[in-house]
Specification:
- This protein has 722 residues and is of the alpha+beta class.
- It has four domains: 45 residues, no CATH class; 110 residues, Son of sevenless (SoS) protein, Chain S, domain 1 (Up-down Bundle); 269 residues, Ras guanine-nucleotide exchange factors catalytic domain (Son of Sevenless (SoS) protein, Chain S, domain 2, Orthogonal Bundle), CATH 1.10.840.10; 84 residues, Phosphatidylinositol 3-kinase Catalytic Subunit, Chain A, domain 1 (Ubiquitin-like (UB roll)), CATH 3.10.20.
- The protein has 25 helices and ten strands.
- The strands form two sheets. The protein has a five-stranded antiparallel β-sheet with strand order 1-2-3-5-4. A five-stranded mixed β-sheet has the order 7-6-10-8-9, with helices on both faces.
- A hairpin with a 2-residue loop joins strand 8 and strand 9.
- It is globular and about 90 Å long.
- InterPro entries: RA_dom, Ras-like_GEF, Ras-like_Gua-exchang_fac_N, Ras_G-nucl-exch_fac_CS, Ras_GEF_dom_sf, RASGEF_cat_dom, RASGEF_cat_dom_sf, Ubiquitin-like_domsf.
Length: 722
């Protein structure tokens, strides 16, 4: 089979990409070979005759809403077999379910008055049969893939409209009974908060219970694999409920508006759970002042072992949450405590941290996720023989149970990609047509989410109510509390019974292990900033706190978090979790501010280098087109990150700029992104952050693209003029 670019076809209200598909349908011996009695598949090419068939594939590239809905009925005829799935997964970015349903049923689905082009020349009976089959096919796919679109309590207007249409045009059909059952199901279901399952607030507790600081003995009583299984159970339940279209950049980026407080509840629930795990790790390590240094080190070891069990279970969400917590400022600075963590456990920690290394835009975690997405079990490789033996032994126990495993991803991976796509690609093209090529790109990410959700059905985990109740009872430490307790614990450790000789040997051991050198450089302490941590659910702010590393995985357009450690920090080889926030408009769950996309909220599908998105061929034979990326100017465009002065520095918005944009244009777009009055352009100035003590202030009418410093991070501040 070969493909050839057939160019574009333009119709009224639509533009199509055309591809010519050439397929060999027959190979036979030529006349001379047949006279000799030869067979086609046994002869060299010069003695055979091949017959080919060329077919045309039309894929809509852009169009009006009416054309896009009409194309649902003609896509199969145009050999665009994935169109219906792509449309249903992404249409919420540009239309409502009611608008699509009304067009489909009233305009194109009227069996009496329809003049649908594909059947216009057939007799009326054939027209009705063909159109009925097309409508039924689309509705069946809609109910199969996106039944949540019809959940509109208490009236269920769309579902009732659909039911009325089926009664009039397809009475007593399977489709009619199916819609009736779905309506009853919605009406009978009790309204429950999607995030109630994992909430750590008092509302999730049994009457009379209160939040409490973890008891080390109670925590130690849970076996490592039991904790990992229960965290995986909770993550699986939440991830399977995720509505894929909630992840779209154009939808997720609107969540911080006042009228959208309840937008994307399934994503918020996942964020809340991620934050609850990170805070649980921190509170179990720091919550009890009386712990001896060795006891605190044992708790750190236990969490590393739990993270390893999560790796075996292919739960990358809790795995990253635990690693991020251990790399948080309050835990990472416990350098004396870390000296008592055994060498073997430190090696496991290092290998787990490497999974989320920001090298090449998180290439390791992306490749691993794709490799294990549908595999039955984890593929464990360890550079240390002892760790390899231990891992294989645990994995063999899992295999002996005879139950396959799914894969729970770190959702920020996909949120980031979708935000980057939404920022880089336009919603509309020339003529005001909806850019459906953008939706095809977004569907590539949505399809990965759906595939992983399907794989989660393979898990067979039983809830342990004792652990779940313990987990819900944990009182998270505030940013200030964790920092204060961390200082107290380290001060107590400094007065411990370590002799200078033993202390020197431990320092040397850790230095050699992580740096290959005898030099140990302790991290600089970063006192907490005044911004509050976002409450027990971790959602009250838009991003992780810059200074604390307490994962307020909250929500921003491009959450940006300053890495806690410097490059020479021995215990933090990868800058992954440090103050990460599981969220971002950027589709992310966390990100680092000071480096080019370090820890940034970017993941699958974004090419190497700071959040770039790999080019995709628009069709066979077409040249790949480079998309604008963060921290790199390419083909007259790039993506910058703009935060508001006076707000949390970690909250920023991604702005696409070109070499034609001047200060007023960029300022207006930034104000809109931050939900501020765009008419106030004259009241603000745009500043590029060069370093901690240097910044570049732009003149009022400067060209941002040519005036910016392209050798530092593309981080900007919008500041109100004095």
């Amino acid at each position: 089979t070969t493909f050839q670019d057939g160019g574009e076809e333009v119709e009224d209200g639509a533009v199509y990409n055309v591809t010519l598909k050439k397929v060999q349908i027959q190979q036979a011996a030529n006349k001379g070979a047949r006279w000799l009695g030869g067979e086609g598949d046994q002869l060299p090419p010069e003695h055979t005759v091949r017959q080919y068939e060329t077919s045309k594939i039309r894929a809509i590239k852009a169009g009006t809403l009416e054309k896009l809905v009409e194309n649902l009925l003609t896509a199969f005829g145009d050999a665009d077999f994935s169109y219906i799935s792509i449309f249903l997964a992404t249409y919420r970015a540009f239309a409502s379910p009611r608008a699509v349903l009304e067009l489909l049923l009233d305009r194109f689905g009227n069996l009496e008055t329809s003049s649908h082009g594909e059947v216009a020349n057939l007799n009326s009976l054939e027209s009705e049969m063909v159109l009925r089959a097309e409508i039924a096919s689309v509705l069946r796919a809609w109910l199969d893939q996106c039944s949540e679109d019809f959940r509109e309590p208490p009236d269920y207007m769309c579902l009732l409209k659909l039911l009325d249409y089926l009664k009039n045009n397809m009475p007593n059909s399977d489709m009619e009974s199916r819609v009736q059952n779905l309506l009853k199901q919605f009406q009978n279901q009790e309204v429950e908060a999607v995030d109630g399952f994992c909430s750590t607030s008092s509302s999730g507790l049994v009457d009379g219970e209160e939040l409490e600081i973890s008891n080390p003995e109670e925590f130690s009583s849970f076996q490592d694999h039991v904790v990992a299984e229960q965290l995986t159970y909770m993550d699986v339940m939440l991830f399977r409920r995720v509505v894929p279209y909630h992840c779209l950049g154009s939808i997720w980026s609107q969540r911080d508006k006042n009228e959208n407080k309840n937008l994307a509840p399934t994503i918020r629930a996942t964020i809340t759970q991620f934050n609850a795990v990170t805070k649980c790790v921190i509170s179990t390590i720091l919550g009890t002042r009386e712990l001896k240094i060795q006891q605190r080190a044992k708790i750190i070891e236990k969490w590393i072992n739990i993270a390893h069990e999560c790796r075996i279970l292919k739960n990358f969400s809790s795995l990253r949450a635990i690693i991020s917590a251990l790399q948080s400022n309050s835990i990472y600075r416990l350098k004396t405590t870390w000296m008592f963590v055994s060498k073997d456990v430190l090696l496991v920690y290092e290998e787990l941290s490497e999974i989320f290394s920001d090298h090449d835009n998180y290439l390791t975690s992306r490749e691993l996720l794709m490799k294990e997405a549908t595999s039955k079990f984890a593929n464990l490789d360890s550079s240390e023989k002892e760790n390899q033996k231990k891992s294989q032994k645990r994995l063999q126990l899992q295999k002996n149970k005879g139950v396959m495993q799914g894969t729970v991803p770190y959702l920020g991976t996909f949120l980031t990609d979708l935000i980057m796509l939404d920022t880089a690609l336009q919603d509309y093209v020339e003529g005001g047509l909806i850019n459906f090529e953008k939706r095809r790109r977004e569907f590539e990410v949505i399809a990965q989410i759906k595939l992983l959700q399907s794989s989660c059905n393979s898990y067979c985990l039983i809830p342990d109510q004792k652990f779940i109740q313990w987990f819900r009872r944990q009182r998270p430490l505030t940013e200030e509390e964790s920092y204060k307790l961390s200082r107290e614990a380290e001060a107590a450790a400094d007065t411990n019974i370590l002799s200078p000789k033993s202390q020197k040997s431990m320092v040397k051991r850790i230095s050699t292990l992580f740096l290959g050198t005898d030099v140990f450089t302790p991290p600089k302490e970063q006192p907490p900033k005044s911004s509050p941590v976002g409450g027990s659910s971790g959602e009250s702010t838009d991003s992780a706190s810059v200074s604390s590393c307490e994962f307020n995985h909250s929500e921003t357009e491009d959450v940006c978090v300053t890495p806690v450690s410097s490059p020479e920090d021995p215990l933090k080889k990868s800058s992954v979790g440090s103050d990460k926030g599981y969220d971002s408009d950027k589709g992310s769950i966390s990100s680092d501010k000071g480096s080019s996309s370090k820890g940034s909220i970017s993941e699958p599908g974004l090419g190497s280098d700071s959040g770039s998105i790999p080019p995709r061929d628009s069709g066979p034979g077409s040249a790949p087109r480079a998309l604008p990326v963060y921290n790199r100017q390419s083909e007259g465009s790039c993506i910058i990150r703009v935060s508001m002065d006076g707000l949390r520095d970690s909250v920023y918005k991604s702005i696409l700029i070109t070499n034609q944009d001047r200060i007023p244009d960029v300022t207006q777009r930034a104000l809109l992104k931050h939900n501020l009055e765009p008419d106030a352009v004259e009241d603000y100035e745009l500043v590029q952050v060069i370093s901690e003590d240097k910044e570049l202030v732009f003149p009022h009418d400067a060209n941002v693209f040519y005036g910016m410093n392209s050798h530092v991070n593309f981080d900007f501040i919008l500041r109100k003029k004095a």
